[in-house]
Amino acid sequence: MEDENSQLLENAHSEFNKRNFDQAEELYTKFITSCLQSRDCDACKLATAYNNRGQIKYLRVDFYEAMEDYTSAIKTDCQFPVPLYNRGLIRYRLGFFEEAKSDFMQALKLNANFQDAKVSLQQTLLDQQEKLKRGY
Description:
- The chain is 82% helix and 0% strand.
- It is mainly α and 136 residues long.
- The N and C termini lie far apart (53 Å).
């Protein structure tokens, strides 16, 4: 079962990298389902599958579904900064600046050199201040 799951994940990554997102999403979903049923998967691999499936949904502009996958990735591997950053980007785009700020700060606690998270945190703080100046 472990070998089969590893192959599923490898195939999903391959399709993702080739930008065959429909196929990649299907394979990530199979991998995630298999992991949840067997309860015998590496947390890092499961979190990566959730994160990458979330990225596919993000690219499709299915923001709330993407956030669900990013949240699942965070719950699966709380030491993985990328889904925190990704969820923060969506929260920022939706105008949830406090939540975005929290995600970016948590990502930076896990990886202080995460440059994209630094830049996004700064932009969030600027936009949050601008929003307050405008009175909403």
